[in-house]
Design a protein that fits this description.
The structure holds 2 protein chains of 2 kinds. By secondary structure, chain A is an all-alpha fold. Chain A contains 13 helices and 2 strands, in the order H-E-E-H-H-H-H-H-H-H-H-H-H-H-H. In chain B, helix 13 crosses helix 22, helix 15 crosses helix 16 and helix 21 packs antiparallel against helix 22. Classes of the chains: A mainly alpha, B alpha/beta.
């Protein structure tokens, strides 16, 4: 990491010696219209993935927290995608989405919205099982007495979910969110394999831009600047999330019990 | 256009993931590379008198393997006191692997490359030997190769490589049975091409297969159109480092014609997610869903591997048509003239390396290439082509290149990795309709 930071102040094509160029790479980082676009796409992908993955895995997790045997078996099955490598998953979907020989024969990966949604979907398909597991664990921690009391007060299933389950899971949500957001900043293979940042540059998220700068343009200085920026952004974002959600204040979900 | 792309049967995805792993590992390697640079004479791996040669490891590498064996047993090797060891690098890994190796102490003595821009960074870093004087003073090398091919890999008029593989011009392939059904002929003029397109579209056939997801197949259209409209000088100017050259009216006209083709459905509506590398575009073409395919000469071997019946009986080939208002000679060719061997100046036995390179001009070497289905770029090749697997196709290519007033090196190869990648991105945007022809021109002018 220190080396990357050092390289961000040099110009280096991987062949000769790195030449110090001061702030040139960082200035380029601020001026580069592709970086602005990339930042936008990354944020959009983050929001879309977060919404989709959180909603689905929260519901699945709470459902899977029940003690019924069929739920235990199904949750084991649901977990399988997470065990596959992301490269394998991306390749699988790449084949399924082939415009002429795939299952869905449409120009999905070649259109801006299609390519974006495909990335959201494939990422979700892979990571929802993991977050489901987190929520399952979280939901099982909720004391049964809360539900029993609520039932006596006449609360229905939906009321119980919104008044007990959700508030009790708020730290779980934070944990899962931080993992998702930071994970997205290193989200790379799926984009590389499915779209290569295309069509045009419409799905070139930051990690992909870094790859392109380093290993296709051989501009390691600039790639290191993007990498350093990613590290700062990831740290900043997770701190911000923790701060905003009050996760750091160590307030227990069991207060007053 | 990396040569032999068509031959590589590996799927793009696995290749990329490996490249990524390699990339991650590269940073570790690079640190060692840094310290090695200071020590000056980084001698090459292999030990003793053995020289290492890196080659793109596809099917065709067996010609180089035979050449190495021949050389190691020859009198030339004995008098130069050197032997060569061939290292085959899996195709898709070749460029990054060479890059990493050349910056490290275990750099190869001899290395395969695409000439021109592909070695520009190496030339600037003093990592490739200027062979101009060697070639000039040696009749075997000087007269051994087609001059246009030898020159196509030049940097600023100096030779850095010896041609060592077949030529790979870009050719307009067509599906003979589709053409017969629709009663059309391969186009020789642009109007004819547009006429054909109208007929084909009416019949529900996509005029051209195009692997738009890979970007480089799209580049081939720009290369030929620019040549036909404004001649080879237009790109020559850009290649020599003048970014204002993108402002040439021929480039704008090219971009406008591309837009017309795309908007008119010449490539169908799904081309931007079709890939050449994974076999999508060749399959669409072979199955008659598309009538034509503008592709490098390796398309023939790709089809022979995947759809042998189609390749043998239904695959037709023609030159790119003339554009009526254009000034470019219809005989001009674009593509990859060939691949080259270059020498690392830090090799410990320059004489042996040069002696090894001379084998590429030999008749045996050319015969091996012909047997593989390649068309050698040596001057002696014409007589050998009748023994090619498909003599008609081999002769078509050889004559096409021999008679070409100019052979323009693929733009991405000519510009080098950095500019080439950025240009690919702009081309992708143009074809996907994300930028207009004038946006394309101004974006390209800004490339640096």
């Amino acid at each position: 990491m220190a080396l990357a930071f050092y390289l961000s102040f040099t110009k280096w094509d991987g062949l000769g010696d790195p030449k110090p160029v001061g702030l040139a790479n960082w200035r380029k980082l601020l001026d580069d219209p592709r970086l602005t676009q990339s930042l936008g796409v990354t944020l959009l992908l983050m929001v879309a993935s977060w919404v989709f993955q959180t909603v689905v895995s929260l519901l699945l997790g709470v459902w899977a927290a029940g003690q019924q045997r069929n739920r235990a078996i199904l949750s084991a099955v649901f977990f399988v995608p997470f065990l596959l490598s992301s490269t394998a998953i991306a390749l699988l979907f790449y084949a399924l989405l082939d415009p002429n020989f795939g299952i869905i024969q449409a120009n999905i990966l070649g259109s801006t919205d299609g390519a974006f949604l495909a990335i959201v979907f494939v990422g979700a398909w892979q990571f929802i099982p993991f977050h489901t597991l987190i929520y399952q664990g979280g939901a099982r921690q909720i004391p049964e007495v809360l539900y029993q009391a609520a039932a006596i007060d006449g609360a229905g299933r939906y009321r119980q979910f919104f008044s007990i389950t959700l508030p009790q899971l708020r730290h779980t949500i934070t944990t899962s969110t931080v993992l998702m957001v930071v994970g997205l900043l290193t989200y790379f293979e799926t984009v590389l394999i499915l779209t290569k940042g295309g069509p045009g540059t419409d799905t070139a998220i930051l990690p992909y831009l870094m790859y392109e700068a380093g290993f296709k343009n051989y501009d390691f200085g600039y790639a290191s600047a993007i990498a350093s920026f990613l590290v700062v952004a990831a740290t900043g974002l997770s701190l911000l999330l923790v701060r905003l959600t009050g996760f750091g204040r160590m307030r227990s979900t069991r207060e007053g019990m | 256009m990396e040569s032999n792309r068509g031959r590589s049967t590996e799927s793009a995805g696995t290749a990329f993931s490996r490249r990524w792993v390699l990339g991650a590992g590269a940073s570790a390697l690079l640190t060692t590379g840094l310290s090695a640079c200071g020590s000056g004479e980084g001698s090459s791996g292999g030990g003793g008198d053995t020289l290492t040669a890196f080659v793109y490891g596809d099917d065709a590498a067996k010609v180089q393997a035979a050449s190495v064996e021949r050389f190691n047993g020859s009198a030339a090797a004995k008098s130069a006191k050197g032997k060569v060891k061939l290292e085959k690098i899996p195709g898709s890994d070749y460029t990054p692997k060479l890059r990493t190796a050349m910056g490290s102490p275990s750099a190869p003595d001899i290395f395969f490359n695409w000439g021109g821009g592909s070695i520009k960074a190496y030339q600037e870093a003093g990592k490739v030997l200027d062979l101009t004087d060697v070639i000039e003073s040696d009749p075997v090398l000087k007269n051994g190769f087609l001059p246009s091919v030898l020159a196509a890999g030049d940097l600023k008029g100096r030779h850095y490589g010896i041609p060592m593989r077949g030529m790979q011009p870009v050719i307009l392939f067509y599906n003979k049975s589709v053409f017969a059904e629709q009663k059309i002929q391969p186009p020789t003029t642009w109007d004819q091409l547009l006429d054909n397109n109208t007929k084909l579209k009416k019949a529900g056939i996509t005029p051209f297969a195009l692997g738009g997801a890979d970007l480089w197949p799209e580049l081939m259209w720009l290369e030929y159109l620019t040549d036909r409209i404004g001649g080879p000088e237009v790109f020559k100017r850009i290649q020599d480092g003048d970014a204002e050259g993108w402002g040439d009216p021929a480039i704008l006209k090219t971009a406008e014609m591309v837009k017309e083709l795309v908007d008119g459905g010449a490539f169908g509506d799904k081309f931007s997610s079709v890939s050449y590398v994974n076999g999508g575009a060749p399959a669409v073409f072979a199955k008659g869903k598309a009538a034509m395919h503008l592709m490098g000469s390796w398309e023939y071997s790709t089809q022979l591997g995947k759809f042998p019946d189609f390749a043998k009986s239904n695959l037709g080939w023609a030159a790119f048509p003339k554009v009526d208002s254009g000034t470019g000679d219809v005989r001009n060719v674009v593509g990859n003239p060939t691949n080259y061997w270059s020498i690392n100046p830090r090799t410990k036995n320059k004489d042996a390396a040069i002696a090894f390179l001379k084998d590429c001009a030999s008749e045996t070497y050319a015969k091996d290439l012909v047997a593989l289905g390649d068309v050698p770029t040596t001057s002696n090749a014409a007589a050998l082509l009748s023994s090619a697997p498909n003599p008609e196709y081999a002769k078509f290519q050889y004559e096409m290149v021999q008679q070409a007033p100019a052979f323009t090196l693929s733009w991405d190869q000519a510009l080098g990795d950095e500019l080439g990648t950025k240009m690919h991105t702009e081309i992708g945007k143009l074809f996907a309709g994300k930028s207009s022809p004038s946006d394309f021109v101004s974006a390209c002018k800004g490339l640096k």
